[in-house]
Design brief:
This is Lipoprotein. About 30% of the residues lie in helices and about 20% in strands. The protein is of the alpha+beta class. It has two domains: about 1-60; about 65-205, no CATH class. The relative contact order is 0.11.
Length: about 210
């Protein structure tokens, strides 16, 4: 009988110890679970705040000055496509200094100015561009009205032309950076004289 009582007491002691031990473990696991949830919530909150505070990026509207220019007024009409004649370097000996640029632009290129010409344009320093055009019919070279004389410090657009028009816009310029108005450095190709002549904006700007 005494042994039985000792056995029962032993079981009760072991059971009580186990319960106490489990009660300590339970809250620890629960705390870990809560802690993980809070971390996730904090990360989500930071992500949402970042997105909300990101400034909206607005696309800038580009102004196409070519749209206001009446190239068709000086149209030469469609021309029959012919094979480009060899470049006649003797027609403009000074152009040999830019032989590579002119040759690369001219080689197998389609006419891109005045019905018969392929133009080549390249930089010549700060706010400066220059170029030549080659007649596909005989390969003769002509100077474009560019360079320092026709450059502008505040250029909105430069070297505007058309494959079927004799009108060439060397520059669309402003007096200063804040100016709202623009002025044009424009020329008209005279096919008979084989030269460019200045033309005023009133003659080629479309009526609004």
């Amino acid at each position: 009988m005494e042994n039985t009582i000792k056995y029962i007491l032993a079981i009760l002691i072991i059971t009580g110890y186990a319960c106490n031990n489990n009660s300590k473990t339970g809250p620890q696991l629960a705390d870990t679970s809560v802690s993980d949830t809070l971390i996730t919530a904090k990360i989500d909150t930071i992500f949402v705040d970042t997105v909300a505070k990101t400034p909206e990026i607005k696309e800038e509207t580009e102004i196409s000055f070519a749209d206001s220019i009446d190239f068709k007024k000086y149209e030469v009409g469609p021309q029959e496509r012919i094979e480009n004649a060899p470049i006649d370097w003797s027609s403009y000996p000074e152009a040999r200094d830019f032989r590579t640029r002119i040759t690369e632009a001219y080689k197998d290129s389609d006419v891109n100015f005045g019905g018969h010409y392929v133009i080549s344009i390249f930089g010549c320093g700060a706010s400066c561009i220059m170029g030549f055009m080659v007649d596909v019919r005989d390969g003769k070279i002509y100077d474009l009205p560019l360079g320092e004389e026709n450059s502008c410090l505040f250029a909105e657009d430069r070297a505007l032309g058309n494959a079927t028009s004799r009108l060439f816009i060397a520059g669309v310029c402003k007096e200063n950076l804040e100016a709202k108005q623009v002025y044009y450095k424009a020329y008209l190709w005279d096919e008979d004289k084989k030269e460019f002549e200045k033309i005023e904006a009133a003659a080629f700007l479309k009526k609004t």
